[in-house]
Amino acid sequence: MEFSVIQGDIAAQKANALVNAAGTSLRMGSGVAGALRRGAGGPINEAAMENGPVDLGGVAVTDAYELDAEYVIHAAAMPHYGDGRATSESIREATRNALEAADELDCESVVVPALGCGAAGFDLREGARVVAEVCAAYDPDSLEDVRFIAYSDAEYDVVREVADEVRRG
To answer: CA 9, CA 13: separation in Å to the nearest integer?
Structure first.
């Protein structure tokens, strides 16, 4: 399996599955969720919420509508209760469950953002390390191409640096 770091808008990516940085309610608000909601058109927010709420670290799958993908995997790294903050464990579980869902759907490619590091308030460097460790250690069935995406220049620099450290061991 190839694990790479890319920069860009997740809603503009072509892959079998795109991972949404979701909260447990699966309501698609701002950040990654907002970009995917706008790019998908159609009732993706309603479809996601019909599958929720999910447990913290859980996932739900919807159609990708007008996105250049077959599926959106909504990975709940953020609770919609309590302080609403992601933890390293919720990020780890959400990332692992998203990769497993992509495999179960026989996806060959998936794009994963820095789960829990936007509205959920988790430190980007620490969160990127958790996502990169899970992706690097994942033993796929069908997945051949896992892309860890960062949007801004600053985010990309951090994610790339951390992913390189993880790959070097």
So the answer is: 7
